[in-house]
Write a structure and sequence with these properties.
Layout (H helix, E strand, L loop, with lengths): L1 E5 L5 H10 L4 E5 L9 H6 L7 E4 L2 E4 L1 H11 L9 H30 L4 H25 L11 H10 L12 H11 L2 H10 L8
Parallel strand pairs: 1-2
Antiparallel strand pairs: 1-3, 3-4
Helix pairs in contact: 1-3, 1-6, 1-8, 4-5, 4-6, 6-7
The protein binds glutathione (GSH).
Glutathione binds next to α3 and α4.
């Protein structure tokens, strides 16, 4: 059985939801993050003390984008098409969430935690807002419910997880089409099961 090091509602929740979507059983290992070396067990599998870590046959796999892609390939999931342009688009949106949107939140959080100038924090949050606006614009132009069209892919799940983060205390706004996507993803049984297991409330779709 897979083991997943996670923190409630963190980016690791996307891996959790993906596993649920595939009906894969998982042992959840709740981890302390945010304070260096707060969790020796997590440190053993990831020296950077970050979640998610997926343990596969006793071997740790790091980086959410890599973990999700590995799971989709291994279990032949439509969350990540097997090849060609469809796969390129699904990867594009997964990486948009993982390497741009998530990193935007991490940058703003770094500024806040380290007492950076309020203008710098504001700029970092404006960059995040621009990414939410880009998602809304993309959905409006495509006229489709999900980032890659009519079918949910892995990027939709990670975007839905990130949308629920309130730790920056910044009033991000999401457009109607983005909210419809968040609702469609977060109300799925696989998502609801992950929310219940991690004891997280979903507020972003309201
Ligand atoms: N690039 C990494 C980022 C992981 C990451 O930043 N995870 C956050 C939770 S959403 C974390 O563990 N933060 C604690 C820390 O950085 O100390 C990935 O995608 O796996």
């Amino acid at each position: 059985m897979y083991q997943l090091y996670y923190s409630p509602g963190a980016c690791s929740m996307a891996v959790h939801v993906v596993l649920n979507e595939m009906n894969q059983p998982v042992e959840l290992i709740k981890s302390a993050i945010g304070v260096p070396n707060a969790d020796p067990k997590l440190h053993q599998v990831n020296p950077r003390n970050q979640v998610p870590v997926l343990v596969v046959d006793g071997k740790p796999l790091l980086e959410g984008g890599a973990i999700i892609t590995y799971l989709c390939d291994t279990h032949a999931s439509s969350l990540m098409p097997a090849s060609g342009w469809d796969r390129a688009m699904a990867l594009q949106w997964l990486m948009y969430a993982n390497a741009s949107l998530h990193v935007g939140y991490s940058k703003a959080s770094f500024v806040k935690k380290n007492g950076g100038a309020p203008e710098l924090f504001e700029k970092a949050c404006q960059q995040i807002q621009a990414m939410w606006d880009q998602i809304e614009d993309h959905l409006a132009k495509s006229g489709k419910p999900y980032l890659c069209g009519d079918t949910m892919t892995a990027g939709d799940i990670l975007v839905t997880v990130i949308a629920n983060w309130g730790f920056l205390g910044y009033p991000f706004t999401m457009g109607a089409k983005t909210k419809a996507l968040l609702k469609a993803v977060s109300t799925r049984p696989a998502y609801q099961k992950a929310l219940a297991a991690e004891q997280v409330e979903y507020k972003a779709a309201a």
